[in-house]
Design brief:
The chain is mainly alpha-helical and 200 residues long. The protein has one domain. The protein is built from eight helices and no strands. Helix 5 packs antiparallel against helix 7, helix 5 runs parallel beside helix 8 and helix 7 runs antiparallel to helix 8. The longest helix is centred in the middle third of the chain and has 29 residues. It is elongated and about 55 Å long.
């Protein structure tokens, strides 16, 4: 465990300090801010209703469910259970941290930003992505870059965003699979067949 924590701190220092440059300093505080993406959420809502009519509302509600469950798991279960200080709040780390935004008082492990954005991205990939396969990598890059931004600005360790991302991916995937089974509200009228396994 000590070795893992040491590696985590070393990787944090590399991302937070060694990767420092003026462009990322200007972009990352804005990029990882959840309020930055409100226009995107509105576009998803409007597109869903326009493209899928009343089913689009259930699609948006399912996205909200994915986000709510991931936030609950990260903020209400993981953080109180581990009580890990953020790097910017840790007296042993404060001289090493290059803080670009407000630190916040919540615990560090896991990152709710990472969990929530990966939940949204994964749900969309496994639902809307069945209709528009090109969405996969843009949405995963979006979630990954926001998670990386949390480390870059100094408010989370790498393991915080890695585990948070895994939580979000798992919840997004499970909610997507459950949503697709309810054909009465699903935007996918018929689930795609399972890929065939070639004979040995």
């Amino acid at each position: 465990m000590t070795t893992l924590l040491s590696l985590d701190e070393s990787l944090f220092y590399f991302i937070n300090t060694q990767l420092q440059n003026g462009v990322m300093d200007a972009i990352m505080p804005w990029w990882r801010d959840k309020e930055t993406w409100f226009p995107l959420y509105i576009i998803i809502l409007l597109f869903s209703v326009y493209r899928f009519k009343w089913k689009g509302l259930f699609f948006v509600l399912a996205i909200g469910l994915s986000t709510g469950l991931s936030d609950l798991a990260s903020s209400k279960v993981m953080k109180p259970s581990f009580e890990r200080l953020r790097p910017c709040n840790d007296p042993a780390m404060e001289e090493k941290v290059r803080l670009l935004v407000g630190c916040g008082k919540a615990y560090s492990f896991t990152s709710s930003h990472a969990a929530n954005h990966f939940a949204i991205a994964t749900f969309i990939v496994f639902t809307l992505g069945l209709i528009y396969p090109g969405l996969k990598w843009p949405f995963y890059f979006w979630a990954f870059s926001i998670s990386l931004g949390q480390v870059y600005v100094g408010v989370h360790y790498p393991t915080d965003v890695i585990v948070g991302g895994l939580i979000g991916w798992t919840i997004g995937y499970l909610v997507a699979k459950a949503y697709l089974r309810v054909l009465a509200i699903s935007i996918i009228s018929k689930q795609p067949p399972e890929p065939s396994v070639p004979a040995a």
